[in-house]
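okkk here we go again. third time trying to get the magnesium ion bound version out, last two times i messed up the smiles copy paste (missing a bracket lol). double checked this time i swear
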Amino acid sequence: VSPLAPRPPPHPPPKGERSHAGDFSYVGIDAILEQMRRKAMKQGFELNIMVVGQSGLGKSTLMNTLFKSKVSRKSAQPNPEEKIPQTIEIKSISHDIEEKGVRMKLAVIDTPGFGDQINNENCWQPIMKFINDQYEAYLQEEINIDRKKRIPDSRVHCCIYFIPPTGHCLRPLDVEFMRRLSKVVNIVPVIAKADTLTLEERDDFKQTIREELRANGIDVYPQKEFDEDAEDRLINDKIREMIPFAVVGSDQEYQVNGKKILGRKTKWGTIEVENIAHCEFAYLRDLLIRTHMQNIKDITGSIHYEMYRVRRLNESNAGPGLAPGQAPTLVSAHTNGQTKVNGGPPNGMAAQCEVLTHEM
Ligand SMILES: Nc1nc2c(ncn2[C@@H]2O[C@H](COP(=O)(O)OP(=O)(O)O)[C@@H](O)[C@H]2O)c(=O)[nH]1
Ligand SMILES: [Mg+2]
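finally!!
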């Protein structure tokens, strides 16, 4: 049994059943659960996942795997002949998934090859900018006088960072990206194309990465400081011991022992991507969708977005009235000691990122 297996849901008594007839002390507070369930079912669920990593590491394939895996296999109508094009711009693709009457909108934000250049200094900036732009859009909706009843949420709830399967250690680029971005978004690191490592190499690599994350003070999801109680800690400690998940992706279906599976066929056998004996894709899927989706969204809203919001509102209170979408007044101590005001220069956003990552 997967350690991430969901807890069984509480079963409300069927509608109209008067299980408490004659019990005059029964108030019926527990019926709130049924009300909440019905409301949530009506609204549906949304999750925005971003994938980041060098080109060719299997980002697009893994997201297709997620859409085609057991979560969505019944509902999505994938086109088996669809070829994955190379990703050239930050692009969001969303799929509507429905299972047992529960609707879910899963959006994947695919980013073009991160760190593909010869000089990769500051290549985290466009991604940081994209994340902050979504916070800004949400904030503008929220502070509108006649705001929408439900604010459209394009905030990035979780960023899956693809580590190349070198088996050595993290590259400075990986450290830099995760160090900065883990302060503004939930980061879930994965080892890409884990089928290229032996089991021993994989375990060693995982351990090395965990040590390096710790040594660099990088707090990836699920962050220890946000565990709410002992039960959370117990469950999340197990996940923290397994991170980064060594994943294999595929959008090809094969027949194995009469069952249809998603896998990669090689001369020496078929790797079943959803089989936990073969790789850890299923753990990643369960974390994102089955066990921690609500928590991932809660931390996005109450920690990451909240920090952005407080900062922005403080800034607009301090400075002269800030027009919507205008970059806040910035004082950057980093860029050659220059002072940057109100996003004048084209790299105003970059300066903002500097300040954000250092202050938040
Ligand atoms: N061995 C192996 N190859 C993979 C895996 N995932 C994707 N690939 C292959 O790697 C190539 C690049 O995949 P793609 O998803 O386009 O990578 P992206 O540039 O990161 O989006 C394709 O030929 C995939 O079939 C994996 O888990 N293992
Ligand atoms: Mg791609």
